[in-house]
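Per reviewer request, we include the raw input and output of the structure prediction for the construct analysed in the revised manuscript.
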Amino acid sequence: MINYYAPVDGNTANFRKIFDFAKEMGVKTLVAEPPAEVFEKLDELCNEYKINLAIHNHPKSPQSKYWKPENVLKVCEGRSKRIGSCSDTGHWVRSGLDPIECLKKAKKRIITMHLKDVVESGKPEARDVPLGTGKADYTAVLKELRTQKFRGVMTIEYEHLSPKLVEDVAKCAKFVEDFAASLKK
């Protein structure tokens, strides 16, 4: 298993159980939204277990601490490179942010990506659409990742229960495949 979304909260007593599970499953990166005060302990465990922790961003809301890259980078300061970002471009767009500028800001700390496009910018409830058909300018997103020489895992994440879900996700995959093929020309 490459990535696993983990229930990492403020209860440090559970952290070792989470890391033991991740090690047993062969997880390379835990994805989570931990409170800022537990990062010292998490950094120790990441280095001990040789497992990354990628902080996930959700759309701007009172509950979402990491909705913009600056907030992720702040908790990464002084930490090992095993602590970084699970950058979700669709959630940045939902928050009214420019995903290209966010990628540039997060550049040195991006561990993994959630590829997502949405129909409206600045609307936390905006529904997902196939990559390249929404507001994220996905050609520019993929070009920026290429410029950064990003080598992490990219996951297509589609949260809209579309009646054409399989077809929509297939369109997302085709968009990425077509972009990759264009690089060979």
